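Input.
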Amino acid sequence: MPRKALSRGTENVLIDLGFPDAEELTAKVLLAKKINGILAHRGLTQSEAAKLLGIPQPKISAIRNYKIRGISLERLLQALTALGQHVQINVTPSRHKQSAKIAVAA
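Output.
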């Protein structure tokens, strides 16, 4: 049986899987991971987190379970600032050979 040639993927599995919004989803996942880490470190329940962040408890549950399609980047950024985090956004020109992209370091 002939072997299929392996194709090399990107660094982003969501892009490899063909998600059209892969970069945005990746950014949201990284922000949600940071939020979840802070909530866990503080030992907050979902109800306590909802009150602190001004977000309905079902949205906190969605963040905790990384079901983030219905949650905006803005809401995640606001949650981080409510948790005492400094959020900085840098916009730079794309290099000629690279396409423009969204990148998050959290």
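DSSP finds five helices and no strands in the chain.
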